[in-house]
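Researcher: Next sequence.
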Amino acid sequence: MPIPADVRPENTPWPTWPLIMRTSSAHEEGGDRVFSVNTEKFVGDAAGNVQALSLHEVTMVDGRFEKVPGSERELPAQLVFLAMGFTGVDKSSDLLDELGTVVGPRGTVARDAAWKSTVDGVFVAGDAGRGQSLIVWAIAEGRACAAAVDAYLTGHTQLPAPINPTTMALIAR
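Model: Next structure:
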């Protein structure tokens, strides 16, 4: 995307969230921000270590990004993090296979109305059970799941259970 404006644009009037340039503490720690580019590939050495990103600039044309001719370049890199959000539970670990839990097509661990996975004594909450969501959902699910675990272990609970596994966000109309 292009670099955001420093002041609120007219197309995001109050009370909509203003699309403006922001700098967080993470940005202040270092690094360079690059805008309006598309990464074409990772460039690496024979051992498979990343050395650079091959990229080009883009511009918006009729609602689509188009390559800017002659803007190809490489950005040196030693490590690349892909920030894609939740893309499913970690399948590179043997934990879920060893436990025998069922992972559904959305990459989440299957669970019932009592937070239990398909394996007795194994519970699931947060992104692992709901999928990508907000931290407030993970907190609420963690609390409710803790109550379910307490009831499972002791036969009863006095812990609050603010939501259930099927609670959905309210949509403002």
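Model: The mean pLDDT is 89. Helices lie at 25-28, 95-99, 127-130, 135-154.
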